[in-house]
Structures are given as C-alpha cells and as structure tokens.
Amino acid sequence: MEEEDLFGELTDAVVAGDKDRCRGLAEQALDEGLDPYKALMEGCAEGMNIMSDRYDEGEAYVPDILLSAEALYEAMDVLKPHIDVEDTGVSGKVLLGVVEGDIHDIGKNVLKSIFDAAGFDVIDLGRDVRPEQFQETIEKEKPDILGLSALMTTSMTGMPKIIENLQKAGLREKVKVMVGGAPISEDYAEKIGADGYAPNAPQAKKTAEKLLKQKKKEA
Ligand code: B12
C-alpha cells in the first residue's frame, strides 16, 4: 500500500476507535518498511485531532474519544520500539504534566509518546499535578523544558501560578516553559509568560526543538 494511503487508514482507524485495525495497520506499516515515526505523527496523532474537532462540533461524544485514545495507544505500542531515536538528532530533557484539578491526560500521553519517539528524555508527572510537585521535580531533575497541559478553563489558571512559583524560586531562567491543551492559545501563553505553545503534538515537538536551540544559545 502507498504510504499516504496507509497513514490515511491509520487515521481512519483511530477515528473509528478500532483497536485491532490500528494494531494491524501499525504492523503492516512496519512490514512494508514505512517510517514508524511518520506513521505515529501523520497517521495516529492526526486521528485524535479529528476526534477533538468532531467533539467540539457535537459529532462525537466522550466514549468515542476514549475508544479512539485506546486505538491510538495500541498503534503506539507497536510503532514506538521501532523508532530510531538517533535519526531525529534531538536531545533534551522534558518534564510533562497535567495541572492540578485536571484529569484529562490523553493529549499529554500523545505528547509523551511523540517526545519519547523523537529521542527526548521524558519525565511524566501524570495528571492533577500540584505546583510544588513540578517545582520539586525541576530542582531535582533539571529538565530543559517544562510542558504543562490543561484541558479546562478552570484548571488553566494553574499555569501562571506555576510560572510565578518558578520565578520566586529562581528557577525560571533554568527551564523553558511550554503550554498547551484545548483552551490554551498562543496569546494566553504569551500573557502568562510561557516560552512556547503548540496546538497539537507534532507542532509541540517542533516548538520543543526550537526552545532547546534557544536554550543552548543562551547557555
Ligand atoms: C475525553 C474527555 C474527558 C475524559 C478524560 C479522559 C482522560 N483520561 O483524559 C473524561 C470523561 C474523564 C472527562 C472528564 C471531565 N471533563 Co472532559 N473532555 C474530554 C474531551 C471530550 C476530549 C479531550 C481529549 O482527550 N482530546 C483529545 C486529545 C488528543 O487532545 P488534547 O487533549 O486537546 O491534546 C492535544 C493538544 O491540545 C495538545 N496539547 C495538550 N496538552 C499539551 C501540552 C503542551 C505543553 C503542548 C505544547 C500541547 C499540548 O497536543 C495534544 C495532542 O495533539 C474534551 C473536549 C475537548 N474538545 O477537548 C472534554 C472537556 C475538556 N471536558 C470538560 C469537562 C467539563 C469535564 C468534567 C468536569 C465533566 C464532569 N462534569 O464531570 C470532567 C473533569 C474532570 C477533571 N477534574 O478533570 C470540558 C471542559 C470545559 C471547561 N471548563 O473548559 C470539555 C472541553 C468538554 C466541554 N465542551 O464541555 N473528560
């Protein structure tokens, strides 16, 4: 099958929440020698983007999203071990977490997989993470980038607090902060003093690479 067609089918299988088909297509992509990293980004992640849009338009519901997420995780399981991390040429430590009061972690998990696959060293604090937890981990692990995720207008207000805390602790200059999640915008990121924003996982990877370069220049 042509690469474009197979990736399209992977996208469709994520949208349909078809776990078995996702696994099968991911295996087929490997058998046919296609790039597993591209399959993850252009096939699987694209499917989740479509589902979020459909949900917003009232064309999909929470159970549909959860099925799609499971299908995506299935394909990710198959693809991830075959991604050659050396190829992407990136190295950096990223700390990820969903802010306090928020348990939406599908987007963060997609991000984690794509960062893992791209060769970043990823520390995942999970969901509903207290600001102090972020701070303690930054002190201990010294990540290059902090990636904060929030899916609710009520929880996104936790982001500026985390950034303020870092400033107070003298850690702000040591880590680049990027933010994301459905209610977050470029403007919001700028307003709260974050260094970067991305609307989806593939772009988050690009933003992370850009921030890493900036950080190296500043050092
Ligand atoms: C699935 C879902 C759930 C699931 C979550 C399961 C899970 N394990 O995550 C369940 C059913 C548990 C749930 C619960 C609730 N939910 Co809900 N949920 C959703 C839904 C439908 C989809 C979210 C999702 O997974 N999208 C798919 C992923 C792949 O996309 P994503 O998260 O946006 O992530 C991408 C980008 O945003 C970006 N990204 C994400 N994080 C980051 C971070 C960085 C650093 C960067 C750069 C990029 C980035 O990259 C990701 C990958 O491409 C949204 C609707 C929506 N439009 O978002 C509502 C939604 C977020 N939920 C909502 C609500 C209100 C709730 C509940 C309060 C409902 C209730 N009354 O119980 C609870 C909240 C519980 C809590 N305390 O958190 C509201 C929030 C409204 C608001 N206040 O803003 C939404 C918007 C629905 C709505 N329109 O009302 N929910």
From TrEMBL:
GO terms for molecular function: cobalamin binding; cobalt ion binding; methionine synthase activity. Keywords: Cobalt, Metal-binding. Residues 199-219 are annotated as: Disordered. PROSITE patterns: B12_BINDING (PS51332), B12_BINDING_NTER (PS51337). Residues 206-219 have a biased composition (Basic and acidic residues). SMART domains: B12-binding_2 (SM01018). CDD domains: corrinoid_protein_B12-BD. One of its GO terms (cellular component) is cytosol. Residues 1-91 form the B12-binding N-terminal domain. GO terms for biological process: homocysteine metabolic process; methanogenesis; tetrahydrofolate metabolic process. It comes from the Archaea. InterPro entries: Cbl-bd_cap (IPR003759), Cobalamin-bd (IPR006158), Cobalamin-bd_sf (IPR036724), Corrinoid_p (IPR012741), Met_Synthase/Corrinoid (IPR050554), Meth_synthase_dom (IPR036594). Residues 91-219 form the B12-binding domain. NCBIfam families: pyl_corrinoid. Belongs to the methylamine corrinoid protein family. This is Trimethylamine corrinoid protein MtbC1. It comes from Methanohalarchaeum thermophilum.
